[in-house]
Design brief:
Elements (H helix, E strand, L loop, with lengths): L7 H22 L13 H4 L6 H6 L1 E5 L14 H4 L8 H11 L21 H10 L4 E7 L25 H12 L4 E6 L13 H10 L9 H4 L7 H19 L3 E4 L10 H12 L2 H4 L4 E5 L9 E5 L12 E6 L16 H13 L4 E5 L9 H17 L13 E2 L6 E3 L4 E3 L10 E6 L2 E6 L7 E4 L13 E7 L7 E5 L2 E5 L10 E8 L5
């Protein structure tokens, strides 16, 4: 069912888009060719799309996990599923829900929605914080696995305009970000491909208990929220899934889309997936700028989009393609919880530098509180990132990987959890861990900590290593102060004398200018 709602703001937005489309059509009719190719709804066509240079230059993006699950704020953003499910680590959530809110038959997930008021949500404050962090693109998870939408949608009644805050959460943030920086790029994260059947446990006995007790996931009145396969067809779900994504594309014109879930290219899922992806890529001519889809864990065709590794899971130290890691600001879970613990700013900076040196990027997810405020600890991390990037951004933005990516042991940063090999930078980086980037004819080196004697020794840049066509260095300077540094180079390495007084709490960067052409 399509829900028709009059909204003056949306009317103005749609008129603006219509005028833009008319202008685009007029230009084409006047004999001018489109700048970007037209993509067909096939993997062969979509795989021809290349990662935009602006995204390769950006390096750092921000999004957030915020929604209904932020109200109970207990353990995980999967609260809505686990409150009905004792399996898959759900027993603690299941029992907590009964103890605090009552039985599932008395208080269902839908009953959290009126409590989600976003009374402290200030999109202008969010935009100021995000842009000050040094991020070049940002957004939020506009819909998580629970299916609740944080935009004004015509295709569902379960959105933030019709219920809860009674506000177009995403639309307000997009407007504020573009107002704060006209060049800022917009990210949209969709997690609702899992929504169909997500609330249903695989425990048959528990399902039968839920039916007898009258859990709301079995109530036809809420079938369009819970998408119980016993009540709603998969085809109806896929039709609405497609409509919602196209609606966000049309109304908010994002530059990057990131999908979570799985099985996008399997069976009946493939046709609507290809339809949505080609629809998005074909907006490039309308927007006049390049867009991109992030391919998490090869959810789509392995040759499609920008490869993404969740928290770096199972990512090899060296890869030959463009990629990005997404990372939660908390040490566990992605949404705000009452017992949340955070990664340190130093840990995030070290991991960020490491990723950039290896040809990657970072998408950092923050965890706002249920009321829409961003905790002070998270604000501190983002502002520290911004301060560091303001001082060292020359060696980060617009750079590419060099022939030598890193120096120092890699094993200490790899954590074997049993299920995955994870990257962990907590307190492990030191002055012997060097990370390199390049831009044009300049080489940049970052040490993950300040050397104790203020002498930075880079063994990789010894005289036996050809660093340029003349294999000579002309100048070395601090990135943050631009101060010229003394240095010496022999067969044992390059020794750079840093200021005696440490003035950087995180990774320290230097700029190395060479004579001749920088070696590839």
């Amino acid at each position: 069912m399509k829900y028709q709602k009059f909204n003056f703001t949306k009317l103005i937005l749609l008129l603006t888009v219509s005028i833009s489309l008319f202008a685009s059509s007029y230009t084409h009719a006047a004999g001018k060719t489109n700048k970007y190719p037209t993509y067909e709804a096939s993997w062969d066509s979509l795989n021809q799309h290349e990662t935009p240079e602006w995204l390769l230059d950006a390096k750092f993006g921000i999004y957030g996990h915020w929604g209904i699950y932020s109200i109970p704020a207990f353990k995980t953003e999967w609260y809505g599923r686990l409150m009905y499910d004792k399996q898959t680590r759900g027993e603690e959530v299941f029992n907590h829900h009964i103890e605090k809110y009552g039985k599932q038959s008395e208080f269902g997930y839908k009953d959290f929605i009126p409590m989600f008021k976003a009374e402290k949500y200030n999109p202008d404050e969010w935009a100021e914080l995000i842009t000050s962090s040094g991020a070049k693109y940002a957004g939020i998870t506009v819909v998580h696995h629970d299916g609740y939408c944080l935009w004004d949608s015509e295709f569902t009644r379960w959105d933030s305009m019709d219920t809860g805050p009674k506000r177009d959460i995403y639309g307000e943030l997009v407007s504020s970000l573009r107002k704060a920086d006209s060049d800022f790029k917009i990210l949209t994260c969709f997690h609702h491909f899992r929504t169909y059947g997500w609330f249903n446990t695989k425990d048959k006995e528990l399902l039968e208990q839920g039916r007898k007790e009258g859990w709301d996931i079995f109530d036809p009145e809420y079938a369009d929220l819970y998408w119980n396969p016993e009540l709603m067809s998969k085809q109806k779900f896929l039709t609405q899934w497609t409509s919602k994504i196209k609606e966000v594309i049309d109304n908010y014109q994002p530059d990057v889309i990131w999908f979570d879930g799985g099985g996008f290219s399997k069976g009946e899922n493939e046709a609507p997936t290809l339809d949505v992806l080609s629809y998005f890529y074909n907006t490039q001519n309308k927007k006049g700028s390049e867009v991109l889809v992030v391919n998490k864990k090869s959810n789509f065709h392995p040759d499609f989009g920008l490869k993404n590794f969740e928290k770096g899971g199972n990512r090899p130290p060296k890869v030959d393609f463009d990629w990005a890691d997404d990372l939660n600001v908390a040490t566990r879970g992605w949404c705000y919880t009452y017992n949340i613990n955070y990664r340190t700013a130093n840990q995030i900076v070290d991991g960020f530098v490491d990723r950039v040196s290896r040809g990657g990027a970072l998408m950092l997810s923050i965890s706002p509180k249920g009321d829409g405020s961003i905790p002070d600890e998270q604000q501190h991390i983002l502002r520290e990132m911004g301060k560091w990037l303001k001082q060292n951004g020359e060696g980060i933005y617009g750079t590419r990987r060099w022939k030598i990516e890193t120096e120092g042991p890699v094993e200490k940063f790899l954590d074997d959890t049993g299920a995955k090999i994870m990257w962990d930078f907590k307190g492990k980086g030191d002055s012997g861990d060097i990370r390199f980037t390049k831009k044009g004819n300049d080489l940049f080196a970052f040490a993950l900590d300040w050397p104790k004697d203020s002498k930075l020794i880079i063994k990789s840049l010894n005289t036996n290593e050809v660093i340029s066509s003349k294999n000579e260095i002309s100048k070395i300077a601090m990135l943050d102060t631009k101060k010229k540094l003394k240095w010496s180079r022999d067969e044992n390495g390059l020794t750079v004398v840093l200021p005696k007084q440490k003035h950087c709490d995180y990774a320290v960067g230097i700029k190395i200018q060479v004579k001749g052409k920088l070696a590839e």
